[in-house]
Specification:
Blueprint (H helix, E strand, L loop, with lengths): L5 H8 L4 E2 L6 E2 L6 E9 L5 E12 L8 E8 L7 E7 L5 E5 L2 E4 L2 E4 L2 E4 L13 H12 L13
Antiparallel strand pairs: 1-3, 2-3, 3-4, 4-5, 5-6, 6-9, 7-8, 9-10
């Protein structure tokens, strides 16, 4: 569970954010087939937002129906769970989260300490065949500028 309440996370999510510098995709060493992009932020005046970062991850599936996209907004320097927001996209029939209310299947999002299923959006494009739809959702929800190197490089 996140250290942040939904309300606290929403306060950070609602502030416009621009990427700092030119982050690039790298291979994640501890997960074969995974690529990650880590970025820091500046505000609208170009001032660094301390501790706030973005982590995007694409895991290439060993089995086609096991894909996973992770889009995360993190507050570093906080103990335990630094996640403010996370969008997880995977097949709708895959168990993807276990919480006090039981299992969630398929795409879902974490906003602070709350989790919500997005499985109903799979038919609209919230699935692993539509990176652009999931990315647009993440950028909209977190107010991150659309000026990044968001196209996933091919292996």
């Amino acid at each position: 569970m996140s250290k942040f309440t939904k309300d606290a996370a929403m306060l950070v999510m609602e502030r416009p954010k621009n990427l700092l510098g030119a982050p690039s995709w790298t291979v994640r060493q501890n997960h074969a087939g995974s690529k990650i992009l880590v970025a820091q932020f500046v505000d609208e005046e170009g001032i660094t937002i301390p501790g706030l970062s973005m982590l995007l991850e694409v895991r290439a599936p060993a089995v086609v129906d096991s894909c996973l996209f992770l889009f995360s907004l993190m507050q570093r320097g906080t103990p335990h769970e630094p996640r403010l927001y996370q969008l997880e996209v995977c097949p709708v029939n895959k168990p993807s989260h276990r919480g006090p209310e039981g299992f969630l299947y398929g795409p879902h999002e974490h906003v602070g300490d709350e989790t919500a299923s997005l499985a109903g959006m799979a038919g609209l494009g919230m699935d692993c065949s539509n990176w652009d739809f999931a990315l647009t959702w993440f950028l909209m929800r977190t107010k991150v500028s659309n000026n990044g190197p968001y196209t996933v490089p091919q292996p």
